[in-house]
C-alpha cells in the first residue's frame, strides 16, 4: 500500500513509520511527504531517506481548496491509497476529505475525547490527570474528532515534568502508529479483495 505522510514539524513519527516500512514491518511504502512548513526538520528526515516531498506554503494560495486541489493531484499522480497525518498542524478540508474518505488517519497525544486541539500534553499536565495517552483515529471535518481506531494509556507520575510526559507519550506513539497503520492497511486490503 502506498502511503503519504503529512507533517509540519520534527517528524519523529514520520521517521518511525518510514523505518517500519523499510524494515518491512508494515505492508506499505512511504511514497510522499506533504509538508506545509519550509523549515520543518521532517524535510531533512525525508531527504535522508530519499522520500519525495510536496512542500507548500498556505499563504501562497487564496484558499484551502486551492492548495488541497494541488495536494490531491500529487497524491493521485503517485497512486497514494492512505493518508497518515503525523503532526500536520492544519484541519483537513472538504477537498481532501471527499477524495480520501475513510482513508485519512491521525495521531493525537491524549486519550480523546479528552484534551483535543493544541498542546494536548500541556493540557493534560495542567489538569493534573494521572493517566493520559495516545489516540489514533479516522479524520473527519472536526478538530481531533472522528472514529477511534486505537488508544494506549500513559501513566503520569507526580514527579514527572511536562518533558517526561512528552517523552513517554512519544515512545508510545512510535510503537502504536506503525502497528495501527498495519491494522488499517489489512482492513483496506480486505475491502478491495
Ligand atoms: C505528535 O505528538 C502527534 O501526536 C501530534 O503531533 C506530534 C508530532 O510529533 N499530532 P513529531 O513531529 O512526529 O515528532
From TrEMBL:
Active site feature: 108
Keywords for the protein's UniProt record, in alphabetical order: Purine biosynthesis, Transferase
Gene Ontology CC entries for this record: cytosol
Site feature: Raises pKa of active site His: 144
Positions with a binding annotation for N(1)-(5-phospho-beta-D-ribosyl)glycinamide: 11-13
Protein family (similarity comment): Belongs to the GART family.
Protein name stated in the entry: Phosphoribosylglycinamide formyltransferase
Protein source organism: Salipaludibacillus keqinensis
Amino acid at each position: 500500500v502506498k502511503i503519504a505522510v503529512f507533517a509540519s514539524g520534527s517528524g519523529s513519527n514520520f521517521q518511525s513509520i518510514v523505518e517500519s516500512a523499510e524494515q518491512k514491518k508494515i505492508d506499505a511504502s512511504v511514497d510522499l511527504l506533504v509538508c506545509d512548513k519550509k523549515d520543518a526538520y521532517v524535510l531533512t528526515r525525508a531527504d535522508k531517506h530519499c522520500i519525495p516531498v510536496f512542500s507548500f506554503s498556505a499563504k501562497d494560495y487564496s484558499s484551502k481548496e486551492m492548495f488541497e486541489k494541488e495536494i490531491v493531484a500529487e497524491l493521485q499522480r503517485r497512486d497514494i491509497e492512505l493518508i497518515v497525518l503525523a503532526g500536520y498542524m492544519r484541519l483537513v478540508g472538504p477537498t481532501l476529505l471527499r477524495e480520501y474518505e475513510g482513508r485519512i488517519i491521525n495521531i493525537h497525544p491524549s486519550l480523546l475525547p479528552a484534551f483535543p486541539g493544541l498542546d494536548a500534553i500541556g493540557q493534560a499536565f495542567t489538569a493534573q490527570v494521572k493517566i493520559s495517552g495516545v489516540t489514533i483515529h479516522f479524520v473527519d471535518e472536526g478538530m481531533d474528532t472522528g472514529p477511534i481506531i486505537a488508544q494506549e494509556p500513559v501513566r503520569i507520575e507526580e514527579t514527572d515534568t511536562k518533558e517526561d510526559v512528552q517523552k513517554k507519550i512519544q515512545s508510545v506513539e512510535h510503537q502504536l502508529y506503525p502497528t495501527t497503520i498495519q491494522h488499517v492497511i489489512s482492513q483496506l486490503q480486505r475491502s478491495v479483495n
